[in-house]
UniProtKB/TrEMBL annotation:
Ranges for domain NAD-dependent epimerase/dehydratase: 3-141, 176-286
Family assignment from sequence similarity: Belongs to the NAD(P)-dependent epimerase/dehydratase family.
InterPro entries from the UniProt entry: Epimerase_deHydtase, NAD(P)-bd_dom_sf
Domain of life assignment: Bacteria
Protein name (record): dTDP-L-rhamnose 4-epimerase
Pfam families: Epimerase
Length: 379
């Protein structure tokens, strides 16, 4: 097939592009080589761009611009829309920018497909996020399912980081979030991803295009940007450890995420592309197992053979959630997806790749100062 990947020079996009080419598909990539991900002079020095450079048709462009979409849509059968701004914390003060890239970019694509009926696109697959679930799904001692609202600033200020029930002394247990769970994002980033989903699932059925939504958990692995200071704790922690710098662990370090290896994300996405159901679907992509931030930091130090100070600071970012991990039973039953790389193996593969790269100096401290200046980071 002819497949267009927006953001196809990014971490997930480049890995997906290479695999699709291996499978015999013809891939076009639309990407603006964002310096925050690729660094300056990306065309000469970006690992991600160089790995796809001679294997795909590359179009340099911006998804918010209609003319750039039109440059590469002709003859395409599937569009995989990955291009997006992805930093949860950064989204809370770059509101217009995140809204423009994520929401307008998607709207431009769908506007073209709606109004130019001579296209050949039959399916659009979009990368969504666990962020659409907000604080996720919890169960009371009595077995009642609840979906908590955002944590209160006064609780976070006092070091009460766990989700509290509505009833005094009520104990809650976090459980896996399924696709039918309540959608109530706690960040601007999460809101933009939910809007992307709603645009896709509203418009596509009216114009005969199959919509597929992939809600990615925390994706990691070789190829992840080592210089983006706003997203990807494995990369951020790795850079700090290799420089011998202390790690500022937010909250108490026991907040947890579902880390899913890049190869499994690519496999899930390809299954979504090839799945022959005109109704499409919405799918969680994860491993279904939570891992704490503290465990991530300690495991990385073991792999790099280097100890640095772990400063469990009690700092927090507004917009962050406490826990979330995916119920993946739906994607298993419908697409036959099963994650093959558990975190204990995947983090070793990631660390081995990092050791082969130059030590990256990201502006992590600057990113924290930026959020603190805006009152979004409690230090």
């Amino acid at each position: 097939m002819n497949i267009l990947i927006s953001g196809g020079a990014g971490f997930i996009g480049s890995s997906l592009a290479l695999r699709l080419v291996e499978l015999g598909h013809r891939v076009t990539v639309l990407d603006n080589l964002l310096s925050q991900v690729h660094g300056r002079e990306a065309a000469q020095h970006s690992y991600l761009y160089q790995r796809i450079q001679k294997k795909v048709s590359f179009v340099y462009g911006d998804v918010t611009k209609r003319e750039d979409w039109e440059k590469c849509l002709a003859g395409q059968q599937v569009v995989v829309h990955l291009a997006a701004e992805t930093g949860t914390g950064q989204s809370m003060y770059k509101i217009a920018h995140y809204t423009s890239v994520n929401m307008l970019g998607t709207a431009q694509l769908l506007d073209i497909l709606t109004n130019k009926r001579d296209h050949s696109v039959t399916k659009v697959l979009i990368a969504s996020s666990r962020a659409v679930y907000g604080e996720g799904k919890y169960k009371t001692e009595a077995g009642e399912i609840i979906y908590p609202n955002s944590r209160k600033k006064e609780d976070l200020d006092c070091g009460r980081f766990e989700i509290a029930g509505e009833v005094p002394n009520q104990k809650l247990k976090v459980v896996a979030t399924d696709e039918l769970s309540k959608l109530h994002p706690t960040s601007v980033y999460g809101l933009t991803k939910l809007y992307q989903e709603q645009l896709l699932t509203t418009v596509c059925p009216t114009i005969g295009i199959t919509p597929v939504v992939m809600r990615f958990q925390n994706v990691y692995g070789p190829g992840q940007s080592l210089q983006n200071p706003y997203t990807g704790i494995l990369s951020i922690f790795s850079s700090l450890i290799r420089q011998g710098r202390p790690i500022n662990v937010f909250e108490d370090g026991l907040e947890s995420r579902d880390f899913v290896y890049i190869d499994d994300v690519v496999e899930a996405t390809i299954r979504g592309i090839l799945h022959n159901d005109e109704n499409g679907g919405v799918f969680n992509v994860g491993v279904g197992v939570p891992t704490t931030v503290l465990e991530v930091a300690k495991t990385l130090m073991q792999h790099y053979g280097k100890e640095v100070k772990l400063n469990i600071s009690g700092n927090y970012r507004l917009g962050d959630i406490r826990h979330n991990f995916a119920d993946i039973s739906h994607i298993q039953s419908v697409l036959g997806y099963k994650p093959k790389v558990m975190f204990s193996e995947g983090i070793g593969r990631f660390a081995a790749w990092v050791k082969e790269q130059n030590v990256m100096v990201s502006d992590y401290d600057g990113s924290l100062a930026e959020m603190a200046d805006r009152g979004l980071l409690k230090q």
